[in-house]
Design a protein that fits this description.
Helix content: 10-25%
Largest sheet: 3 strands, mixed
Number of strands: 6
CATH topology: hypothetical protein PF0899 fold
Bound molecules: zinc ion
Structural class: alpha+beta
């Protein structure tokens, strides 16, 4: 499945970023998905759990932010958001335009992480399991 390999690469990138940030745990990963990215968001959400299993991201939430297609119209000299991906026309004047400025992205926007937490009076520094 296409989305599964995407999920794996997102997990890999997110895990790297989390390590760099000194994360103890990843709570959520926010990913921007453009309308033209070709990613089925439902499938990606479904695959997230599989891809994160037994990684440092296990149990994390995938927050998808859908990015609509934005085209540039040379007549209006401005960008406009398309209502759908069927018609590439300027939403202001209706002129056909293929100048896509946004909508193809598939990228991690942000991570919600937990860093070393001060637990209540237990003092246990680590709850890490032996490998
Ligand atoms: Zn226009």
């Amino acid at each position: 499945m296409h989305e599964l390999s995407i999920a794996y690469s997102l997990v890999e990138a997110a895990a790297e970023a989390a390590t760099r940030a000194g994360a103890q745990r990843v709570v959520a990963v926010q990913v921007v998905v453009g309308a033209l990215s070709g990613v089925a968001t439902g499938a990606l959400t479904f695959c997230w759990e599989i891809a994160t299993a037994e990684t440092s991201l296990a149990g994390s939430r995938l927050d998808l932010v859908e990015q609509p297609v934005v085209v540039y119209c040379p007549d209006c000299r401005q960008e406009g958001e398309l209502a759908g991906v069927q018609l590439f026309r300027c939403p202001q004047c209706g002129r056909p335009t293929g100048d896509v400025r946004r909508g193809r992205e598939l990228q991690i926007e942000s991570l919600e992480i937990e860093t070393a937490v001060c637990d209540d009076a237990g003092g246990a520094a680590s709850a890490e399991e032996a490998p």
